[in-house]
Amino acid sequence: MESMALPAGVLRFGAVQIEVDGRRLLVEGVDVPLGARAFDLLVALAERRDRVVPRSELLDLVWPGLVVEEGNLAVQVSTLRKVLGAQAIATVPGRGYRFTLAAPVAHLGVAPPVSRPPEPPRALGAPLPPMPTALLGRSAELATLGQMLTTYRLVTVVGAGGIGKTSLVLEALRHRDPLAVPAALVELAPMSDASLLPGAIAQALRIPLAPQIEPIAALVSALGAMHVLLVLDNAEHLVGPVATLVSALLRQAPGVRLLVTSQVALKVDDEHLLRLGPLAVPLPGTPVDDALAHGAVALFVAQARAADQRFTLSVDNVDTVIDLCASLDGLALAIKLAAARVSFLGLKGLHARLNERLKLLRGGAYGAPTRQQTLEAALDWSHGLLGRAEQRVFRRLAVFVGGFTLELACAVVADDSVDADGEVLNDTLVVDCLAGLVERSLVAVDAGDPPRYRLLESAREYAWLRLREAGELDTFRTRHTHALTALFERADVELWFTHDDVWLAAYTPELDNARAALDWAVQQQDTAAVGLMASLARLLFQWPLGHETRRRSEAVLPLVARIDGPSIRAARYWVRRSHGHWGVNQSHALDCARKAVELFRQVGTDDIGLHEGLFAQVTSLRMSDAEIRSALAEMRALERPAWPARVRADFKVAEMFGHYAQGLYEDMHRSAREGLAVSREAGSRLRINILQWYLCTALRCLGRLDEAFEISRAAVGESGPWRGWSLGYLMGEYIWACLKRDDLAEGRRALREFMDLSRGTGWTAFAYNSLTFAELALRQARHTDAAQLLGYADAAWRRLGTLYPDMAQERARILAALRQARLPAGRLESLMALGESLDETAVCQLVLQDAS
Q: Do 10-108 and 387-399+407-467 agree at the fold level?
């Protein structure tokens, strides 16, 4: 054995020892067996511990010459984490993995002695404070900071209060080379008088200052020949004086290097920033091991276990922990304070009380600064650093839900009032203040052009309290409502001329703002709710949220009567309410459409609105043939050459419905084809979906099942916000085509998908497609089930309205087939009566049960 080879190389990381050539892993002296691939991966990561290793590189190293799935890599990483601990290997989203155990003492031919934790660097004054808890989820930032400290003379770590700036700096100092220049840390948070700054630094360094000269000059002179890393912690309240001092040191004390933590940059020459963001939070549904690789979850679990050793992260609670961390914005202080409450409240109790986070998140570590004892104290500290105008802007931004644009911020926040400093909060000042809040990390900026801004949830709750204390809450909620009403009424007009994708990208981000504004308007009995509801309905239809449209329209209804005289807002409300009842209650849809048409005619200034009202009347399918012809003629007379394609497409849809009501399926097919061309020009996915649906209906009625099958199959395979009520109807045609082609397996699968989709949209389209339920059971020879399902369909169509011509034919055929099945006398009728009492959940179970 002695003659075979030299002693194997060894990597040591604390209690972990890797014998590379001997292919052995020892943890605390115990041999830990590993599979070949896991060991190769461990060595590859350990030897490249100074950087993030891309997944593609690891696949080439561990599986050379083979093509394997990335899932194999994730399995091996999970294996190593179980052996070495969840934090041994960090996942860097979008980049790869990094080995994060403490740096090895040696990489030698012979194993070195057991290593000790790294000694803190020499300090000139008091020793560096200990780390209260392990630093989790910051391996990439720690490596970056270490590199910056060796490259630049001035590094400022910038981030929101409670984000973990001080913890990162202390960990970076602990990992510095002990032979590097000594470090001295000066805590600035307790200091309120900037004149004391030079003396505090001199005291930390244990150097005298010449009393006869100006303090900053004396300090610079004393440091002129020294080599030291000066750490100034929590400088945000003394930014001006610190910037002056730092600039002097950079010019006149070449041996001094500076590391500063602050909520804002110093903005001096040669400053290099490390912006510290929130801890990484995984997406919902992330497996336990992968969730632990994210800093927010790792910190929560570590702190929860410190408070209660019984706590474990499991498949049953991982999603709750993820949601908690996301609700706390990945803020380290908030996560620590929340995790400490788990032993008292339990995880579910903590989650349920997060809307009271400022009261709930108290009790920081003993001896911690006051601002770290509670989340509210941390925010008090940050808020106290703002100027009066910034404080006004900050608290008023609390009325926004889910973010805001610069335009909306100015519309809501700016006013003509003058504050105690004599400043008028006009648009220009609002923009300047918002920039300051972004710089202080109180407002986040989301990517986009134009960008969107948002308060972090904890900051928003704090701002909400300040807005209430200032007596401005009602005023600015009302201003928020009126701004959103104006925005969506503008959007209402724009949609006629804009493609869906462009329009949705512009206005979908304001959906939560609009909901909050509408709720407030209804609560305050503000008739602005009528206009906002009418315009918001167009966005709700697109997503689709027809069931929400109906619910919210009902809440607004009492306010419509409070509008004096004919009103465009009221007319639009009634036509959008009509659209919301289509496919649910066709008679009510017609009643609403008639009210809209009457109001549009009385106002007399909105021909496109009148055209939309007539469209709603025709598509209700509740008018006589003569009434339909009259409405279509009026629509045609109203149209102008310059009108947008979206309006012209509506005429083709209405014309198609008119042919459908009369059973003219060839004409219906032609109108649908023509309407599709115009709808594609308009970029209206909603109209395309409706026209494809009725095109397939026409083809089914004409016996051209193969064509109907191919068109509907392609359409239901597409994705997008329109996947909802209109797709639900279109899926019904696909299901009919499958069943009539005797493809029962695919028909049953499509029915399951349709039912899941319908359940998520308040059972919209469920009644319309109810005859397909009976059709499937009939074709499976489940006559008893088919009879019950036919009874359910009869009741559903009575609620919906009169059967359409093609549906009446399908029902007659199903009933005739059931009568031929020769059920016992009276049995068919009793089964149908039983089916009328079924609810949607029971119907789903009955339809999808095993045919055997």
A: yes
